[in-house]
From TrEMBL:
Gene source species: Geothrix limicola
Transmembrane segments: none
Protein family according to the UniProt entry: Belongs to the small heat shock protein (HSP20) family.
Lineage summary: Bacteria, Pseudomonadati, Acidobacteriota, Holophagae, Holophagales
Name of the protein in its database record: SHSP domain-containing protein
One matching Pfam family: HSP20
All copies of domain SHSP, residue ranges: 40-152
Amino acid sequence: MSILRTRNPQAMPATAATLEPFRLMRDFLRWDPLQDYDISPSLAFMPSFDVKESPDAYQFKTDLPGIVESDLEISLEGNRLTVAGKRDEETVKDGERIHLCERSHGRFSRTFTLPEDVEGEKVVAEFRNGVLTLMVPKRPEVRPRKINVAIG
């Protein structure tokens, strides 16, 4: 047991073994400052997004395993794109016991501020195999275009 995990510093005197720098660093990296608080995993559910820009559009992609399409809500107000939804907690049936529960659940909401050069009325959303893909096209006048040079 290291000195960092000890609740009562007087309970364990500092020795060469407990002050060994690599052990201290290992214990510090494993230290969870919230371990004494009862924090529900449902608070931690927040999907990660990939956002990619091409010459024609912005692409938003996120993994949403275990979420059904009817639990998703995608909205665009002005230049603010919001993706919200929920993943339900699994129910425990009679006779079952949970030994470990690490998957998060609950409501989530992510909002992105889009540039002014998007066509909001032409956003396309696709939800396939637990992956949500949003394509937000750019207005034609801001897309790069090739200009031919006349020779002679």
